[in-house]
Amino acid sequence: AGSLSVGELADKLNKESSEIIKKLMNLGVMATINETLEAETIELIATDYGVAVEQEEVVDELDIDNYVEQDDPAKLQERPPVVTIMGHVDHGKTTLLDSIRHTKVTSGEAGGITQHIGAYQVEENNKLITFLDTPGHAAFTTMRARGAEVTDITILVVAADDGVMPQTREAINHAKAAEVPIIVAVNKMDKEGANPDRVMQELMEFQLVPESYGGDTIFVNLSAINGEGIDELLEMILLVAEVEDFKANPDKRARGSVVEAELDKGRGPVATLLVQNGTLHVGEPIVVGNAFGRIRAMVDDLGRQVKSAGPSKPVEIIGLNDVPQAGDPFVVFEEEKKARQIADARKSRAKDAERAQTSKINLDDLFSQI
Ligand code: GTP
Ligand code: MG
Known about the structure:
Layout: E1 4-5, H1 6-13, H2 17-26, E2 36-37, H3 39-48, E3 77-78, E4 82-87, H4 93-104, E5 119-124, E6 127-132, H5 136-145, E7 153-159, H6 166-177, E8 182-187, H7 196-204, E9 218-221, H8 230-244, E10 247-248, E11 255-264, E12 268-277, E13 280-281, E14 285-288, E15 291-299, E16 305-306, E17 308-309, E18 314-320, E19 329-332, H9 336-369
Parallel strand pairs: 4-6, 4-7, 7-8, 8-9
Antiparallel strand pairs: 1-2, 3-10, 5-6, 11-12, 11-19, 12-18, 13-17, 14-15, 14-19, 15-16, 15-18
Helix pairs in contact: 1-2
Magnesium ion is lined by residues 93-94.
């Protein structure tokens, strides 16, 4: 079944519309004869009459993943891990991100002004690590809710003087639901009252068991303030990355996700994109969420203009005709015309959905007032 109105469904089932409407009411669905029903509702009613419903696979031609180039397994190469930091309020997430960035980014580099683009890369033992520095939970959950699975590894920050707290638990649940490996960073080790053993004990309840207790969760004791343990944390990230063997094909058109986006007064829509596969180039036609554009310029996390960006690289781009949302997917198209057409169709579909939603709410309001 695709979509059917109440009347059409009644015809198909050889029943009176009024009977179907009554059945719908029993299910808590208020519908008129011309109302279009959702596939699930159709199935419910039909099954009730002993009629089997065949669901046809609907190919959504506006799904931009249809336009992603196939991966050639022979061309896959190692890519940097993408890391998100999560943990309870005040346990030191921001301080840790800053500390990693400042100890690892040499300010003497060309252009060297570190720029906030919502993500950055650091180098450890000649290997890159990408950190998302948008506020942990928000980034992780909103992006996941929009279907963007960008995180490879989660750092769970737990303050050694405070232990496991509500948002620590929440973070663990998110990471587990996403099946993302967790590294525990026991922070604030410089503080009096720091008790890393207690943190370990508390986390065992969540099956986060350190190697010293026979488990396989990596724990790193550190201080985001004085820098102790940061190098070890980065090494552990690389170790997990090696085991997980993250790969991508740099030799194809790029696909990835929006990390953050905004409207800049002078530059227009500005979006930080994380390339998850392929390589992104200046000048390419791109669909980002429901927006379209040709990439006019790209800037990396150090404020340098770049011409291209490979897998796991975050870049800020300009040239879009609209502001996308965090978690939106992006795909580079071969043809500008096609890209524009898909983006425009996606935009009008989103508008229709929004309008339908609004009128539904108004109708509900009306009913609730009766
Ligand atoms: P929210 O963003 O509010 O959830 O907090 P956060 O997890 O980002 O914590 P933040 O980095 O803002 O740190 C909270 C407080 O703890 C600040 O006053 C930091 O200076 C302090 N802090 C962070 N890390 C350390 C540490 O390793 N040692 C000590 N002594 N203080 C720390
Ligand atoms: Mg913070």
